[in-house]
Structure formats: C-alpha cells, structure tokens
Amino acid sequence: MESTVQVIAPLAERLRPRSLAEFTGQEHLVGTGKLLHQLIQSQQLPSLLLWGPPGSGKTSLATILANSIDANFIFFSAVLSGVKDIRRVVDEAKQQTEHQRTILFVDEIHRFNKGQQDAFLPHVESGLLTLIGATTENPSFHVIAPLLSRCQTLVLKQLSPEDIQFIVNRALTDKENGLGKYNFSLETDAVESIIHFADGDSRRALNCLETAATLTLEATKTSKREKPVITPEIIHEAGQYRSLRYDTAGEEHYNQISALHKSLRDSDPDGAIYWLTRMIEAGEDPLYIARRLIRFASEDIGNADPHALQVALNCREAYHMLGSPEGELALIQAAVYLATAPKSNALYMAGKKVDWDIKKTGTLPVPLHLRNAPTKLMKEIGYGKGYHYAHDQEEALVDQEHLPAELAGRVYYEPTTRGYEAVIRDRLIKWRKILKQRALKHEQKKN
Question: Which CATH architecture has domain 161-239?
C-alpha cells in the first residue's frame, strides 16, 4: 500500500503576508499614500527593483503587488535559470497578453550575467514583461545600465526590533498558519534573544522560532510543565551562531571599508576599531584590511607622520606571520595609530595635480641640463650642459629648474602645518628664501 508524505512548508513561508494589510515594515513604501500603496490603487505597475537586506520583505512585496493587480505572476530564480528559461517565459507572456499582464519576479537579480539581462531587456522595453527584481546588492553595481534606467529602484530598510517582535507575536498567535495551536509562552528575555539573533531579518527570526518551538515541545514532554515555555536558553540553542550580514565583494563590503577609512581620516580610534572588527568577524580577509591601512598611511597621513607607513607595513607583516586570531591585534594597533596620527592629504593632492598636468601636456621632453651624458655625442648636443651639482653648492642648494619648460614654476607639494609636515613646510620656506636671496645677489653683481 502506497503512502504519501505530507510536506509542511517552513513557518516563514506559511506566514508570508498576502496583502499590504498583513505586511510588516517598510512604511515609507507601503503606508497610506506612499508609492506602493498608490500603485496598487491605480492598478498601474512599472518595472521595479527591490533592493534591501535579507528578510526585509522583497519577495512578499512582489507577490502582493502581482496579486493586487490581477497579473500572471512568474517566479524566476537568477541562480537556477538561464537564457533558455527566459525564452520560455517570453513565450508564456505572449500567450497571456490579451488576458492579463505578466509580471516576472527575478529573485537575486544581481546574479544574472550581462547576457541573461540582455535577453529580457527588449521585452521589458516593449511592455510585454513587467519586471520586479529583488536584490541584496547595490543594483548600480550589478544591473546593466539600460535595464536599470527602465526600472524604478525602491530601497527596503532593515526591519526594526519592533517589526521583528510583531512578526514573532503573530507567529505565536496564528492558529491556522503559525504556532497558535500549541499555546506557547515566550519569556521576555527570549524575545530579546530572537530580536538579537534575527538582526533585522524576518526569515531568520521565524526559522529560529520554529526550531525553538520544536525543541520546546520535546522538552515539555519530559518536564513537569503543562504549558510549553520558550526560554532564552532554547533560543540560543536554536540560533547557535548569528552570522553578521556581509558580502566580501558586495554592498556591505564597500560600505564598511568606507566607514573604516572615514573613521581613520576623522581621527576616531573607536570607530576605526569597531568597523575593523566588524569586517573581520564577518569574514573579510584581514590582509585586505592591512592593504587598505597601508594605502591610508600615504593618502591621509603622508609626511605629517612618516612613521605611519612603517607602522602599517609592520602590521601586515605581523598578521602574515601570526595569522588569526593573534595577528588581528596588530591590525587594531595600526588602526589606532593611524587614527590618532596627524593628518595630511598633501601627497595625495600633489599626485592628482601632477597627473592632471601629465594628461594635459603629454610627454614633455626632459630639460637638457637634467639629462645624463655618458657618451661624447650626448655631451656635444648639450646633454647635461649647465647642470649644477647640489653638493658643490652652499647648503647643498641649487637654483635650477627641474620641470619641463612648459611647467616651470609649478608647485605640486604643499605641506600642511600638521605633524612633521610642519617641519618640512618650514624647511621648504627657508630654502626658497635662501635661493631667492642668492638670486637677488647674483642680479646685483651683474648690474
């Protein structure tokens, strides 16, 4: 006799909202009078890109929108589908055109390559398909420009602790699709534990709650309690380890390295330690962070503290030798040193000015007096003629131009008055004054 196994959908799927009234969070989009609320009322839906963190409601919103305007809704996974599947969707949409619109929901659209995106671009342009793409990554990094320009990008926010608590309470009281029939009680600290574990992700919260409910029911069988009670200890057991939201090649990677760099530049060691540690705990390559610290030492400190570059180089060497976790302290040490060092971007600005002049003037010839003259012919045509050897001059200073004639007199490096650069600044001012006085005396002798 054959038997069938009943497959029960996960709690997060069973509780997926079916209307805006059941949807939690994203009030800036779904509240009365807001964009999505108005689109549903008007029964007009443009192509959209829903960009937000995991568990913020992207798929639920797409489903609600499709159901609200009576459309043929096709779910499409960028991970599992290819160009052949896109053609099948287009054929299906052509058959539906006379009856109802086709909404193509592409989950994780950032995983589509250029060829796949190009395949359905003309059908979005023609209106055959209304595209709703969901992504956790910045669309401007991963969606081709023609497609991006034809879609309206909506930014979903991470769910608040209050949103997560509301979703958890609904799961515990919903007798049809949730856990209401078991009459669970949830200790106050357990609620806080779920919120902490969820980190703004409703799916993560419900998965944790579902596992905790299973563990609680098992524990209740062997305990004297009449009512199943979900405790913080059970939540901890169900959640185990909360991974931090991060992608070493995506939006959070760029956001957090930017936060680290700006904390260092703004001389905030606490912010620097926080973002550095966040990145490491989320899985970032510590040697990548070390490379960024080395860059920062030259870009934002430079000669205001010449030791900064050596500190940054040493921290990379220390981590390379020790590895994790011992070597991570060297990264923190370097970050604190760089954050508290005097700041200057004079070297960075000098490089930008030189780069601009090179692009504008091209390959200007080296002045003859600066050229080496190892052969007789070179000497005869003027190589090295008129060059003044610095060590033969008073104070080892020479008054001669080292730039091409077209750029004579240009000043690229302008040291600040901060840190050691103040010493360099005073030194350059002194040297220029000496050279100016020497030139004046020379003119007076000639006259």
Answer: Orthogonal Bundle (1.10)
